[in-house]
Design brief:
This protein has about 400 residues and is an alpha/beta fold. The protein has 3 domains: about 170 residues, P-loop containing nucleotide triphosphate hydrolases (Rossmann fold), CATH 3.40.50; about 70 residues, Orthogonal Bundle (Helicase, Ruva Protein, domain 3); about 100 residues, Winged helix-like DNA-binding domain superfamily/Winged helix DNA-binding domain (Arc Repressor Mutant, subunit A), CATH 1.10.10. It is built from 16 helices and 7 strands. Helix 7 links the parallel strand 3 and strand 4. The longest helix is centred in the last third of the chain and has 17 residues. InterPro entries: AAA_16 (IPR041664), Cdc6_lid (IPR055237), ORC1/CDC6 (IPR050311), P-loop_NTPase (IPR027417). This is AAA family ATPase. It holds the Pfam family AAA_16.
């Protein structure tokens, strides 16, 4: 979060004590610099990456585990630290490169949810390697690839790329990722991070190792919640017993646990409380769908689709009685600035990818196919606050 946002947050407090001190610290879509209780996982990843400390590239690897097991938290924290290894300056045509180490590869993290196209992927990799921003318009994919190849050729020690969230509905699929990797220079190695079992993805045909990340154990998840709460809430804002209750319910899923904490804190904040109560937690847990779509997926959608979802979650029940009624209600909102046809298409596309559900009505008039309504597959309160904070 930037300085301006921090100042505005404090201005909103109006000098009164607030339960939520820092939304970012309790956000289920923000990874902290030091993931709690993930030392063994970090050691396994460092064992695989050990050649980089001798100036060599590690082999390709596939990192996998269930949703909410902390894959992204560990990888982003690890790569952020590896990027700080000693550096020296090099050059590239039309750009200013970041300082690069004479004895260590460069490290690049790519979020596949935000780089599903070939252009977006190569743009993200190149943009991570240079100081000057790479233009998003007026430049073609082949030009990006050419510049990337030229830069990587000058990187004598090569590049290690981590591509996260692969094979999700709105992200890069495994076969496409194989093709993208094939378009990279030879002195590049990669880590692909996903949920599929190694036997179920073709990526393992091109890797030397598969690294499993298991669900959080109960006490680990309690530590995660208490660490986040101590950083983001007022003192004693979350009781240890409530953290245990959330962890028991979440069953090792850190995303859902953090979503419940975030929602509970929001409920308590709305009521002017100075701490989270059992009632807040129970109401928060009831709001998290099962199964739940990751809020990171929702907040990675194009801006216009997020705007549609923002209006969807605030509709009255009568306005959600059918897809047609929902479409008309959302399209009538001036700030959305989309036609009814476009809104309906977005809703159908997001239903196809699982972000929302089309739920068939249980009561009909006996004529024709029963209408269906649209229900979000993500916690509305958390999305509402996170969406509004980024506006």
């Amino acid at each position: 979060m930037d300085i301006e946002a921090r100042i505005k947050r404090r201005q909103r407090r109006n000098g009164e004590p607030r339960l939520i001190q820092d939304y970012e610290s309790i956000s289920p879509v923000v990874h902290i610099e030091e993931p709690a209780d993930r030392g063994p996982v970090l050691e396994r990843l460092l064992d695989h990456l050990d050649p980089v400390f001798d100036g060599q590239l590690p082999p390709n690897a596939y990192v996998y585990g269930p949703r909410g097991s902390g894959k992204s938290a560990v990888i982003t924290a690890l790569f952020a630290n590896l990027e700080q290894l000693p550096t020296e300056q090099q050059a590239i045509i039309h750009t200013t490169t970041r300082a690069q180490p004479p004895t260590s590869p460069s490290f690049v993290y790519v979020n596949a949810r935000e780089t599903a196209s070939e252009f977006a992927f190569y743009h993200a990799v190149l943009d991570s390697l240079v100081d000057d921003s790479v233009p998003e318009h007026g430049i073609g994919t082949e030009t990006l690839k050419s510049r990337l190849h030229e830069l990587v050729r000058e990187q004598r020690t090569g590049i290690v790329i981590a591509v996260d969230h692969i094979s999700e509905p709105e992200s890069i699929q495994a076969p496409a990722l194989v093709d993208l990797f094939a378009g990279l220079p030879s002195n590049v190695s990669w880590l692909a991070i996903g949920r599929d079992d190694p036997s179920a993805t073709e990526l393992t045909r091109y890797t030397a190792e598969s690294i499993s990340i298991d669900r959080y154990q109960r006490q680990m998840l309690v530590d995660v919640l208490m660490t986040r709460a101590s950083n983001g809430l007022a003192q004693q804002g979350l009781d240890h017993s409530l953290a245990r209750h959330i962890a028991d319910w979440a069953d090792g899923n850190a995303h859902d646990a953090l979503a419940a904490l975030f929602i509970a804190a929001e409920f308590a904040e709305e009521r002017g409380q100075d701490r989270i109560t059992q009632a807040n937690v129970d109401a928060a847990i009831a709001e998290v769908p099962d199964p739940c779509v990751s809020l990171g997926v929702v907040l990675s959608l194009p801006t216009n689709r997020q705007a549609v979802l923002r209006e969807l979650i605030d509709l009255e029940e009568s306005e959600r009685s059918s897809v047609t009624a929902t479409t008309e209600a959302i399209a009538s909102v001036e700030s959305v600035d989309l036609s009814a046809g476009t809104v309906k298409r977005f809703l159908y596309e997001m239903a196809e990818s699982g972000v929302v559900d089309r739920v068939e009505a249980t009561v009909t008039n006996g004529q024709g196919r029963p209408p269906s309504r649209v229900e979000p597959r993500f916690p509305a309160t958390a999305f509402r606050r996170l969406y509004d904070l980024q506006q």
